[in-house]
Amino acid sequence: MRALLYASTVAAMLIFSGCGSSEPTVDDTANANNQAEEINIVDEGGSDNSNMSSTDLDGGAANGASTLEGIEAKMSPIYFGFDQYKLADEDVDTLRQNVEMVKNDTEAANIADKYSLKLEGNCDEWGSDEYNFALGLKRAQAVKTELINDGVPAERITTVSYGASNPVCTEKTQECWSKNRRVDFKLLP
Amino acid sequence: MRIILGVLFTALLLWGSDATIEVKKSVDALPSIAVEDASNDYTDGLSKRFFRVLVSDLNVLSIFNVDRDYVRADFEDEKVASVHKELNYVVRYELIDDGGVMVVKVNIINNNKVMHKLTYRLKNPKQYVFLVHNIAVAINNFMGADPVEWMKEKVIISRTTGANRSEILVTDYTLSYQFSVKRKGLNVFPKWADKSKKYFYYTNLSGGQPELRKYGIYDRSDKLILKSDGMLVCSDVSDDGKKLLLSMAPNGQPDVYEYVIAKKTVTRLTRYSGIDVNAQYMTDKKIAFISNRLGYPNVFSKKIGSKATEQMVYVGRSNSSCTAHKNYIIYKSRESSNAFSKNTFNLHLISTKTDFIRRLTVTGVNEHPLFSRDGGTVLFVKKYKNQSSIGVIRLNQNKNYLFPLKGGAIQSIDW
Q1: Residue B291 CB contacts under 8 Å (≥ 6 apart), including other chains
Q2: B299 close to B322: Cβ distance less than 8 angstroms
Q3: What is the mean pLDDT of residues A67-85?
């Protein structure tokens, strides 16, 4: 499915680019039996969401996976430096290489024509606060701006930030953290 | 004479200096206390768990030197256990199964004399943790110590369980009680809707656009409040529960907004091309928030409706979250400018009226600080050596306590 989405994303980019204490005292008044305090914290009756399945929410959106899987293998997320959200020159190059790569895949382009492009901003594990989410969003926004500059219609691009909630690597290494500071490409129906 | 005057003057200066640097060796000075279990019901383990939580609570009260050994006793026995006869206080409890309802009888004993009696009834024994917290608060109040009503409060956390997955849990401040209210998808930043804590706001990231939703933990209602492209987080709720401060990015630009619930109106409070997020009500008319308008995240404030912003923190080069209570702000600050050195994030307390500053934590990543309503205690999230914990700081007592989460990591927390 991921392959499908990645490839669709690339195809979409092709299409879009083409379209432009005190002491106590004795409490004599305490009456243990008559002053029982009722404690009721949470109504645990009924059902919560515990019976819901935790299946992957990444719903199937496209077909032609075999074709798209091949494209996915060639796709590269856009990576960022620590606490950075500006695209470096090499990031712009990566973005354009992705677009150029897809331009030759007309089948994927036809599929992607039906979708909007969703840019997902992500961060490393250093912080799960709002600033980190905003950092992920600014990364997605930087990629969006570059795509718009390349002629992709703004109304066909949405952005979202997952902060540190969507890591692709969970090891405690610099290399791993750098893989998580990225923007992914997805397609929305 | 001049020497005497000099000594007196120096003493006066020391007396008038910041009281917060006073070094206390207080453990031995605190009255001693022990807990005795007199239960004949719930002996399958619950009565021992009850004991452990009560001992922990008494410790967090920070007014006792607490004996941690588990000791059995007869509830009606006038004398305390022999191992406790030298101690100042003994708390003796008995758990009674009254047809499925847990009845808890508590005696506070001093010098083999019952000083205070408490009795509780709990319909659902699984919620015994909150009952223990109630007992601890009652003991604290009986001793005339600083209020600790916050102990009884429900806490809500988002716990990450994997990539793009999380679970929202209602819990207590020790994480001893946990009740899952949302398991499916990616739901983050839960925030209580008001003081009654029957509803909470949260951000749903499971679909195409971030959604702000309101969930009822009693009626299980789940209502969409707002949608926004980019990000949408409820950063704070006004004291009366009628207004929300949001971090929102309808045009991909994260700024602070205020949402009036009754009118369903959204007003943009900040306009900056970088990042403005994490707004907190200082008063009804003034907010503190995080902005990178100086090129790095820092704490600023502004009056609602005014364009002027004021820098609140002048130390640290990366202060990326904050919480406010009256004239005090706690902010999270990165200690190292090297991204991959120790890279510790610590919490600092500042006064908005003076130059007062105090570091509250030492190791690990410390974030999501929250003041208690009385301002005397701070709850926060600590991540250290792959362990996520709830931290409690008793500001006036200079005490920190940690309560680790088993499995997953705490994404965010509200109190």
Answers
A1: B270, B272, B274, B275, B276, B277, B297, B298, B300, B309
A2: yes
A3: 73
Please report, for residues A87, B91, B127, B295, the alpha-carbon distance to residue A137 in angstroms, rounded to integers and kept in the order given. 13, 53, 40, 17
pLDDT confidence of residue A26: 37
For residue A38, the chain B residues in CB contact (below 8 A) are 120-123
Q: Which residue segments constitute the domains of chain A, with CATH numbers given?
A: 2-18+61-188 (3.30.1330.60)
Q: How far apart are the first and last CA of chain A?
A: 14
Nearest to B137 by CA among B148, B123, B126: B148
CB contact under 8 A, A42 and B217: yes
Residues B302 and B240: their CA atoms lie apart, in Å, by 20
B365 touches chain A (CB under 8 A): yes
Measured CA to CA, the distance from residue B61 to residue B54 in angstroms comes to: 11
Question: CA–CA separation, B174 vs B176, rounded Å?
Answer: 5
CA-based radius of gyration for chain B: 24
Start-end of H helices in B143-267: none
Nearest CA in chain B to A31: B117
Read off the pLDDT of residues B348-377 as tens digits, 9 standing for 90 and up: 999 988 888 899 998 888 999 999 989 999
Q: Do A21 and B177 touch (CB under 8 A)?
A: no
**Which sign, positive or negative, has the C-alpha torsion B105, B106, B111, B113?**
negative
Cβ pair B367:A128 closer than 8 A: yes
- The interface predicted TM-score of the complex, written ipTM, equals 0.84
Angle at B183 between CA A164 and CA B199, to 5 degrees: 95
Residue B36, pLDDT score: 97
In chain B, what is the straight-line distance between the N-terminal and C-terminal CA atoms, in Å? Answer: 57
What single DSSP character describes residue B148? -
Q: Which residues from chain B sit within 8 angstroms of residue A162, using beta carbons?
A: 164, 186, 205
Task: Supply the DSSP symbol for B230.
Answer: B
Q: With CB atoms and an 8 Å threshold, state whether B116 touches A49.
A: no
Assign domain B32-149 to its CATH superfamily. Answer: TolB, N-terminal domain (3.40.50.10070)
Reply yes or no on whether the pLDDT at B24 is more than 70.
Answer: no
B21: CB partners within 8 A, 6+ apart:
none
Mutate to test the interface with B, among A40, A42, A178 (most CBs of B within 10 A): A42
Specify the residue for token string 């990450």: B160
Residue of B247, B179, B187, B251 lying closest to B214 (CA atoms): B187
Parse chain B into domains and list their residue ranges: 32-149, 153-227
Distance of CA B105 to the CA centre of its chain: 28
Residues A155, A176 contacting (CB under 8 angstroms): no
Q: Per the CB < 8 Å rule, is B163 touching A168?
A: yes
Residue with tokens 């202060």, as numbered in its chain: B319
B88/A50 Cα distance (integer angstroms): 46
Side chain identity at residue A7, one-letter code? A
